[in-house]
Amino acid sequence: MTAKVIDGKAFASNVRAQVATHVTRLKEVNGLTPGLAVVLVGEDPASEVYVRNKGKQTVEVGMNSYEHKLPAETSEEDLLALISRLNADPAVHGILVQLPLPGHLDSDLVINSIDPAKDVDGFHISNVGLLGTGQKSMVPCTPLGCLMMLRDHHGSLSGLNAVVVGRSNIVGKPMAQLLLADSCTVTIAHSRTKDLASVCRGADILVAAVGRPEMIPGDWVKPGATVIDVGINRIERDGKKKLVGDVEYGSAAEVAGAITPVPGGVGPMTIACLLANTLTACCRAHG
Ligand code: GUN
């Protein structure tokens, strides 16, 4: 079997087009323009690329983008003061603080100082609790993007065995909550899981979010399974720089029923879902 390739790039482009249509209508009918503030502390090159892409795509769908670039040595007090101003600013509907933050800043404290209604990352403890109890919340962007692609491919996910490899707060844990809410039987596996290979082989849906290049080979994939590869790992092979996922794509694509490629799978969906969350936050703020 050769897997169907789930085209995240095309999917994300569709999501952005739908967001743009809604934004146009909000402007015409309600005179509202959604605004997204992105806060970057320090000069991490990968984070700078993400923030630039976020700003560009925010403007492309017709929203206002507010970028706040702060020096690496910014104090916690100054960062909290900025967030407080953004919380109070009616033109700002979504606030994203790019992670990781420099070591002297307490990420939990900073994230939990964001107004939960503007927390478009879905990382605030209130949103985590709301998601875990099935209440209306902001849903973290990467898992939301994965869920949208899974629903599109399967229709109903009810009763399927889902294995999430990785237990991060950003991807693994919220992904598991979303799959559970869609009535999957969910296993969260991680680096200490015994016989990870056989756990993975039981998965109808296998989500890999560990950040280890090509850790999951094709013979860990159940024939016909859907493989969602969240990993984005920069490696060097044969003297060339390359981007690979957490799954060994070539061998997995021979057995899977469907698979997301890297690049062009989950990656583009993350920013598209961030824009969708910003639109949602704006609509909720204005009833
Ligand atoms: N760093 C890597 N991924 C993310 C994300 O989804 N949100 C934020 N705020 N920072 C990140």
From TrEMBL:
It holds the Pfam family THF_DHG_CYH_C. Residues 140-284 form the Tetrahydrofolate dehydrogenase/cyclohydrolase NAD(P)-binding domain. Keywords: Amino-acid biosynthesis, Histidine biosynthesis, Hydrolase, Methionine biosynthesis, Multifunctional enzyme, NADP, One-carbon metabolism, Oxidoreductase, Purine biosynthesis. One of its GO terms (cellular component) is cytosol. It catalyses: (6R)-5,10-methenyltetrahydrofolate + H2O = (6R)-10-formyltetrahydrofolate + H(+); (6R)-5,10-methylene-5,6,7,8-tetrahydrofolate + NADP(+) = (6R)-5,10-methenyltetrahydrofolate + NADPH. Its EC number is 1.5.1.5, 3.5.4.9. One of its GO terms (biological process) is purine nucleotide biosynthetic process. Residues 6-121 form the Tetrahydrofolate dehydrogenase/cyclohydrolase catalytic domain. NADP(+) binds at residues 166-168, 232. Pathway: One-carbon metabolism; tetrahydrofolate interconversion. Belongs to the tetrahydrofolate dehydrogenase/cyclohydrolase family. Catalyzes the oxidation of 5,10-methylenetetrahydrofolate to 5,10-methenyltetrahydrofolate and then the hydrolysis of 5,10-methenyltetrahydrofolate to 10-formyltetrahydrofolate. PANTHER family: C-1-TETRAHYDROFOLATE SYNTHASE, CYTOPLASMIC, C-1-TETRAHYDROFOLATE SYNTHASE, CYTOPLASMIC-RELATED. HAMAP family: THF_DHG_CYH. Homodimer. NCBIfam families: PRK10792.1 (NF008058), PRK14186.1 (NF010783), PRK14188.1 (NF010785). This is Bifunctional protein FolD.
